[in-house]
Specification:
The complex is a heterodimer of chains A (about 300) and B (about 270).
Chain A lengths: L2 H36 L6 H5 L3 H20 L8 H13 L2 H33 L1 H14 L8 H8 L4 H24 L3 H9 L4 H39 L4 H10 L3 H29 L11
Helix pairs in contact in A: 1-3, 4-12, 5-6, 5-8, 5-10, 5-11, 7-8, 8-10, 9-10, 10-11, 10-12, 11-12
Chain B lengths: L1 H5 L3 E11 L6 E12 L4 E5 L6 H9 L6 E6 L2 E2 L7 E4 L11 H5 L1 H5 L8 H14 L15 H15 L3 E5 L7 H15 L10 E5 L3 H7 L2 E6 L4 E7 L14 H22 L1
Parallel strand pairs in B: 3-8, 3-9, 6-7, 7-8
Antiparallel strand pairs in B: 1-2, 1-4, 4-5, 9-10
The chains are: A mainly alpha (about 300), B alpha/beta (about 270).
Bound molecules: adenosine-5'-triphosphate and magnesium ion (MG).
Amino acid sequence: MSATPSASAALKMDQATTDVGGGAAQTGDRARSGRGAASPGGVPGWLARIDFTPLRSFAILLLVWQGVAVWTASPIQLPTPLRVGAAFLDLAAEGEITEHALVSVTRLVVSLAIAVVLAVPLGFLMGLNRKIDAFVDPLIELLRPISGIAWIPLALFIFGIGDVLPVFIMVYVAFFALLLNTISGVRSVDPKLIAAARTMGVARPMILAKVVAPAALPAIVVGFRLAFAGAWAAIVAAELIGAPNGLGFAIEWYRELLMSPKVFAFILVIAVIGYVCDLGLRALQRRLTPWVDEAGHSS
Amino acid sequence: MNGAVNRPKLRLQGVTKAFVAPRTGHRTLALADVSLDIDQGEFVCIVGPSGCGKSTILNIVAGLDAPTAGIVEKDGAPIAGPGPDRGVMFQDYALYPWQTVQGNIGFGLNYGAPGKSMSQAERDARVAEFVKLVSLTGSESKYPHQLSGGMRQRVALARLLANGPDILLLDEPLGALDAQTRIILQAELLRIWGETAPREQRKTTVFITHDIEEAVFLADRVVVMSSHPGRVRDILTIDLPRPRDESIRADPRFGHFADEIWRLIRDQALQAIA
Ligand SMILES: Nc1ncnc2c1ncn2[C@@H]1O[C@H](COP(=O)(O)OP(=O)(O)OP(=O)(O)O)[C@@H](O)[C@H]1O
Ligand SMILES: [Mg+2]
């Protein structure tokens, strides 16, 4: 019986949010037709150049989310976007979002740095030297299929709860993505380009620095993006169990308190950070490898 | 003393090259018993049907490929590997995709042997000089994928010439260019080769081309090859006077040489089509 008032309250709220949702959709429509009508007249250049497609797909996601939330009518299983938004503002005001996000991002950055230092030199050695490759490759192939998450229970015994466990898991995940891409990048060097350098009297170390390394760079950068995505996906699992703070910890904390909107708010933070970082990495990719065209071909 | 003067700059003797496919073991005989002596300062053109082994000869002289049998020498010493004394312009250019036009032309100067004793300012000046030579001023900062085929070819030519090697090995260096640019660069090439200089100061040059008139215009000797397997079919000495300019093309002997070469490769060309 006690559930009835809260459920009806939720229903009322859902109606309210449905209105808001509908309103948003209408504004979206208006904005679209407005753009269509104005485009021959002359929209400001910077506005015309922005691609609004992601915004539209986000709007559809929100609508679907709202619809499913109303249909399930269970704020614990699936709170509405509006309640999640409110929870987000609460958490942000209290500084919890920044606190946990900062912890997780710091761990991520440290992990990626360690993975780069380990994987890129090893990738060069394996890509350049058949003997080293033949020796190390079986180990890599054996370990690679094991998900980073599978190591969490063991890592708990070894490292206990703290910073080391999530960093270890993320380094593990990032390492393989970087290593395999570095190896294939090093191997992808066009032998003609090395031959040309040799006919110009370029010494071996210089060939490595000025031919092999730049030829491998596009693949390494792609590997770094994959490493980031994998590590960021693994951090939640690692922090869920193995850390006293961070975004994964916060999710688990509020789950135990049955505070779904806050759980969702932290999930959103993870999504947004991942999305923004990937945009940043793409921009970095264009800057680092300007000779690689949109399709990823380099000549 | 006398022996050194008579010794050819480059010598290929009984050179055979077979490529064996690693998996199937299938053998392709690219060159069979090719013998050719090239003197200091000589300009030799090689013509012949596609697949007759022209690029293979160039790679062997460059030291990038070893012959299956036979002797390859430079100044009487066997060629064991590549070196900056023999500059190569590759058929597919081998430009560095991550280097701009400037970076590609200056690659040997900046990182290799040719620029060892130069200051950075001297290297940059030399790069600018050769950018200008191949009319790429204004495109210095473009990457190879932003260039047309003909522009890429000119970058590769400029890179080779900027390195200033003793021996020039050019694999169809002007093939992708329009007729006007081609004629201008032919004249430039003769100037850089040292047409007005005495023979000892000229750069020994091996130049592969499909263009018969180009071969006659440039060469001291034209090597005509036949294919399957690649052999030297004939060698013509082009004793037209030097320095040559455009008027030489109207010389009746010029047409005579071109006809002769055409006659030598026509049968094979017709066979290839049939
Ligand atoms: N690396 C290789 N492996 C196997 N076969 C090869 C290799 N390089 C060349 N060949 C073969 O050797 C023969 C001669 O090739 P080459 O490239 O020297 O010809 P080419 O005269 O330069 O032809 P084109 O005028 O088309 O450039 C061809 O039959 C080719 O298939
Ligand atoms: Mg060829």
